[in-house]
Amino acid sequence: MTEKIDKIDLKILKILQNDSSRSLDSISDEVGVSLNTCWRRITRMESKSIIERRVALIDNEKIGLPLTVFVFISTDNHSKEWTQMLSNAVVSINEIVEFYRLAGDTDYILKMMVRNVDHYDRVYKQLIKLVKISDVSASFAMEKIKFTTELPI
After folding, report:
1. What are the residues whose beta carbons fall under 8 Å from the beta carbon of 106, sequence distance 6 or more?
2. What is the pLDDT of residues 25-72, one digit of tens each?
3. 3 contacts 48 by C-beta, under 8 angstroms
4. Residue 50: its pLDDT value, please?
5. Which residues sit opposite 72 in a β-bridge?
6. Are strands 96-101 and 108-114 parallel, antiparallel or unpaired?
């Protein structure tokens, strides 16, 4: 069953997506509810994992990880064991920041954040040491045109 989210919840979520450091007082004023009501709504959405967590977005270039790499994996092995090995390998590598199973010609896509091509190569070698991958390719992002974590609500 999908959790009921009303217009007030959506307003709160929009605010938090844009700036989760906003004070409860300012959020409640903007959405037009009491401080206590606002707190209860946020707490409920956190307990229901509608709000999964609150994080800081960090400029990857300013911390020395300017290169975004998308790694495409296709495989003939769809066994539960191999899939678990791949998942375990990916989880163990900090430079891999996103991991998806896909429909279509490519089975998986990974997003890596690395310093340079040499760094990517080291991470790639670490990955293939942990799990046998037969068909892999990578694309390097040339320019970040749009980046947002805000969902269109």
Report:
1. 72, 73, 74
2. 999 999 999 999 999 999 999 999 999 999 999 999 999 999 999 999
3. yes
4. 96
5. 109, 137
6. antiparallel
Prediction pTM value: 0.89
SS3 54: coil
Strands (E), 115-150: 135-140
| C-alpha dist (Å) from residue 41 to 18, 27, 149 | 17, 11, 21
Q: What number is the average pLDDT over the span 104-109?
A: 96
Q: pLDDT exceeding 70 applies to what percent of the chain?
A: 99
Domains belonging to the chain, first-starting first, are: 7-47 (1.10.10.10), 67-140 (3.30.70.920)
List CB contacts of 113: < 8 A, sequence separation 6 or more.
60, 65, 67, 68, 69, 95, 97
Separation CA 118–CA 43 (nearest Å)? 44
| pLDDT > 70? residue 1 | no
